[in-house]
Amino acid sequence: MTVKFFSLTIIVFATIVCASSSSLTEEKVENVYGPSITDGNCTSTPANELVYTDHIEKRFIPFYERSETSIYYGDKIIYCIKVKNLRTSNVGHAKIIGGGVEHPFARIYTESARSHGMDFKIYIYAK
Ligand SMILES: *[C@@H]1O[C@H](CO)[C@@H](O)[C@H](O)[C@H]1NC(C)=O
Q1: Ligand 1 atom at minimum distance from 41 CA
Q2: Residue range(s) defining the domain that contains residue 16
Q3: Which UniProt keywords apply (predicted)?
């Protein structure tokens, strides 16, 4: 009876530890996907460290999701990526699908909501 109780306690405890550590990991990568993205340390972004900008704008096509992948390759290490969604409703989403912060390159996928257009601005800072 006591042994059963203890093993149950251990299982419950282990489950809690696993669940909380996996949610921590999710928090870390949370900002590489969303309607807008701010990834890395963007507290100080001097203009001379802005290495790439892109404006991705596509008109809607009924029943379709529009998409595009913006690709940057450089020789400095990226420390901040901002993807600003300029739409206010049916905003779609952006996702960093390769490289990114701490890499010299980034691949950023953007997708509109179905039957809607998209309008994203991308800023990459590296040094
Ligand atoms: C972010 O960058 C600023 C300026 O470069 C620096 O002072 C700060 O310590 C950095 N913060 C973190 C969490 O790395």
Answers
A1: 1
A2: 1-32
A3: Signal
